[in-house]
Amino acid sequence: MKDIKELILKKNRLVRIILILVAILLSAIVYNLFLLPLSLVTGGTGGIATITHYLYDIDPALMILILSLACCIISFMYLGVERTTGTLLASFLYPLMVKMTSNISTQFMIDTSDVLLVVLFAGVLSGVANGLMYKSGYSNGGFPVISQVLYEKFQISIAKSSMIINVIIVLIGAFFFGTTNALYAIIYLYINNIVMDRVLLGISTNKAFYIMTHKEEEIKDYIINNLHHTVTTFNVKGGFLEDKRKVILTVIPSSDYYKLTEGIKTIDKEAFFVATDSYQVEGAK
Predict the structure, then answer these.
(1) Where are the beta strands (DSSP E) in the chain?
(2) Less Cβ around it within 10 Å: N or C end of the chain?
């Protein structure tokens, strides 16, 4: 398994490094062009840097660097050298990029009178940057390291601890900059997460169907001969009655969604089926 992991990490390394460079640069631009001028505290090391900048006039890049290095030290102590290596690149590059783009707001004048529009646009750009970051396979460092340590030592969910850390930072920002600022931060984070998922997974153009029916052959025939798609069947056991059944699995284009759902209902009104988005389909003939 270790050999497979090393093979994955070596694969397309140049492309992945380019991706993370673009992602970090875009994140730094968003921070200096939108978040810092609006004193928008959205969590993470950038959120703390925004607070200390306005309260104590500390250079945001310096504060981000200090916090990132502190997180790296914690990572070395509790997660080991191998798992920390992936965070080092972003931990040094992000504050460097923030420093390099610190004057961008004077070169590109943004009208911030419509705060909501600016927040929405910043959320989209940040989502693209974070999506590219995770797509590169590298870690963005910072406070997510704390969440990993909490998971390793206390089995606290990474998602839960990350949310708690960011909520605390946003609430601190609300204390200093007002509740309206915090509400804008929540909108920003929501848009960021949606766009990040779209960058990571893409836009779903297919639907995967799991179908349980007493008329298995008829539905299979409809899918294969009428919709011209392949099917796979596998055995399952019910959790309540523990009866053995077969499930039909098929992946179809979204354009055929209506045809399949209505076809299933027409053939077997008692059929049970689940439809989910399918973001990647490979190997099918």
Answers:
(1) 206-212, 232-237, 244-253, 272-278
(2) C
User: pLDDT tens for residues 164-217?
Assistant: 999 999 999 999 999 999 999 999 999 998 998 888 777 777 889 999 988 999
pLDDT given at position 242: 63
Which residues are bridge partners to 274 per DSSP?
210
My answer on whether 243 and 263 are in the same domain is yes
Q: How far apart are CA 270 and CA 268, in angstroms?
A: 5
Number of domains in the chain: 2
Cα(166)–Cα(183) distance, integer angstroms: 13
Are residues 273 and 224 both part of a single domain?
yes
| Nearest alpha-carbon partner for 141 in 95, 189, 100, 86 | 86
Q: What is the CATH number of the domain that holds 246?
A: 3.30.70.120
Considering the domain architecture, whether residues 125 and 156 belong to the same structural domain is answered as: yes
Task: Say yes or no to pLDDT of 1 above 50.
Answer: no
Residues 6, 165: Cα–Cα separation, whole Å: 31
- Report the SS3 class of residue 107: helix
Give pLDDT, residue 152: 82
Give the tens place of pLDDT for each residue, 206-262.
Answer: 889 999 988 999 999 999 998 888 899 988 776 665 667 789 999 998 888 888 999
pLDDT of 278 strictly over 70: yes
Tokens coding 278: 């399918």
Asked if residue 122 is part of any domain, the answer here is yes
Its domain, for residue 29, covers 2-201
Q: Yes or no: say if 27 and 129 are a contact pair by the CB < 8 Å rule.
A: yes
Do residues 79 and 187 both lie within one domain? Answer: yes
The greatest distance separating any two alpha carbons of the chain, rounded to the nearest whole angstrom, comes to: 72
